[in-house]
Amino acid sequence: MPLFRSTPAIESAQAARMDRRRFLALGGAVAATGLLAACGDSGEGKGSGKAGSDKAATGPWSFTDDRGKKITLKKRPERIVAQSHPAAALWDFGIQPVGIFGPQKTADGKTSPQVGNVDLSKTTSVGMAFGEFQMEKLISLKPELIVTIAYGPMIWYIPEDVIKKIEAVAPIAVIQLMGVAVPDAVKRFGELAAALGADPESPEVQKAKREFETAAAAVTTAAKAKKGLSVAVVSGTKENFFVADPAFHGDVKYFQQLGLDIVKPAKPEAGFESLSWEEAGRYKADLVLEDARPEGGLTHQQLGAYPTWKASPAVKAGQVTDWQTETPFTYQRFTKVLNDLAGAVTKARTDVV
């Protein structure tokens, strides 16, 4: 299943199978489903793209991204356009992108959890669907740098066939997330933010980091107190049941590093092993983390219609909690994920399977 079920997950994982299926599982390369939409709306972005200083750095600027590509500019870029996840990460370090692309709103019009703390009234959208870019609007923002993420070789939300068109507007910096544990990803976003003028050592960031570390320690403490507790991370659609591979997903990998015994599927592809609903009972666990994305998959209530789900030991025991897959990797946003996880582990019984 797509790392992100039918959203960039299923699209990306199935669409990813398309290429990226591998994606969210990232392991592959999601075949992008959308092409550029050259639509319009001009006007300068509402964000400044700046960090703490009002003065633009003078002199040459360079940054080597996770493709190993060195980006060199005459001065530090201030007008940044970023995909939702890195936009959220940069925002929490003090960098406010002038433009954003990727998920921003849920189907009911609420702010998507994928944008984290980004104030959408202070930045300009240049596209929300996978692979969509409103080129005229992007150009009007006069971006000096475009930032996105990657899962394996696939550059997220920028189809391969339009990369050159985008790069004709501004260089693209890519941060790799496939198999990168949360704190390592946050550190990398911090390095980019620092290069853009932010201060990762600011009191606000350091406070958020301490709270994150405290929450992480709580997970470790809970895991040690529940020796033998097995945890499965899953996602379901009408057609299939997916079991997540911790080696692929940075959050699940981190949960494992914190001491949780995560069930590892035998034959993962692009981050998941895809099973039919008849096979959904193959991997049993005491505690199940189920994909909580508001779109693209089944809700807990909908899952109840599937006999193999209802027969799961963890489901019978009431030991199912949310896998918060859309939370961006930032200290500020991920602390709640860790605190919630620590609480679920603390309450869980270890004798379910």
TrEMBL record:
Domain of life: Bacteria
Annotated keywords: Signal, Transport
Segments for region (Disordered): 42-62
SUPFAM superfamilies (alphabetical): Helical backbone' metal receptor
Compartments where found: Cell envelope
GO cellular component, one term: outer membrane-bounded periplasmic space
Keyword Transport belongs to the record: yes
GO biological process: iron coordination entity transport
The Fe/B12 periplasmic-binding domain, residue ranges: 78-353
One Pfam family of this chain: Peripla_BP_2
Residue ranges the record marks as coiled coil: none
Cited InterPro entries: ABC_transptr_periplasmic_BD (IPR002491), Bact_iron-sidero_bind (IPR051313), TAT_signal (IPR006311)
Main localization of the protein described in the UniProt heading: other
PROSITE patterns assigned to the protein according to its UniProt record, in alphabetical order: FE_B12_PBP, TAT
Similarity field: Belongs to the bacterial solute-binding protein 8 family.
Record protein name field: Iron siderophore uptake ABC system
Species of provenance: Streptomyces sp. NRRL F-4415
Protein's gene: gobM
